[in-house]
Design brief:
This protein is mostly beta strands. It has strands at residues 22-26, 33-38, 47-52, 61-63, 71-78, 85-91, 96-101, 106-113, 124-127, 134-139, 145-150, 159-161, 171-178, 185-191, 196-201, 206-213. The N and C termini lie far apart (37 Å).
Length: 219
């Protein structure tokens, strides 16, 4: 019925105020909320998290990341049929990583790229709504995007998402959305050459690609 400021604010002080260093999602079954943030430190302990159970907030804990460096971009996605979440992030060196929350603990870390894109939000995560598999999509220094699939047990190898004909810039921003009635995923990307392109995942492969614009603004 009303908003109340948590007593732990401010959560952290970070070195770059222009990056998306926080995320929050609810577990699908328990209804608990998971809050993650950049805690302002380097090394492999730069992400902190708290759990909100609807009544109280847990103590602040840290997540061990597979790459070192202050996290600059963080995103969370929630499994449709369990309390699992997947966290993706980039650090100050533009390295990308993914970590799985199983409802109790963080683990199954995966380094995605050591040569990430231009330092914007070129990494995204989403769940297929029927299979419950998670997909992470990310960029590097090519015009293609890349992706991996988490099936609840293991990560797939890195796979390529080639852009439609005419795209020359590398991915600097990306976004994904899942269809609630199928395993379809929509993907959009913005590039260093002011292009925007689109693609659709049908549950097994990418198609319906479109170069939507070649005259977008820089960001």
């Amino acid at each position: 019925t009303s908003w109340t400021a948590f007593t732990f604010n401010d959560f952290a002080t970070v070195s770059d105020s222009t990056k998306h260093g926080f995320a929050v999602q609810y577990e699908s079954l328990s209804g608990d909320a998971i809050l993650v943030c950049n805690n302002g430190t380097t090394g492999t302990s730069g992400v902190s998290y708290k759990v909100w159970n609807g009544i109280t907030l847990s103590a602040t804990n840290t997540i061990t990341t597979p790459v070192s460096g202050e996290p600059a971009q963080l995103q969370l996605a929630t499994a449709p049929d369990s309390d699992e979440l997947v966290l993706v992030g980039s650090n100050a060196s533009n390295q990308d990583f993914a970590i799985v929350w199983d409802g109790d603990n963080w683990g199954n870390t995966q380094t995605l790229s050591n040569i990430a894109g231009a330092g914007n939000t070129e990494i995204a995560v989403v769940y297929e709504q029927q299979s419950g598999d998670a997909m992470v999509v990310y960029g590097d220094n090519t015009s293609s995007a890349h992706y991996r699939i988490w099936n609840g047990t293991t990560w797939s190898a890195q796979l390529d998402l080639a852009p439609p004909a005419g795209v020359t810039g590398q991915v600097t921003w990306s976004s994904v959305a899942s269809d609630p009635t199928s395993d379809r995923i929509a993907f959009s990307a913005h590039t260093t050459n002011s292009e925007t392109w689109l693609a659709v995942w049908d549950g097994s492969s990418w198609g319906d690609k479109l170069l939507a614009s070649t005259a977008e603004t820089t960001n």
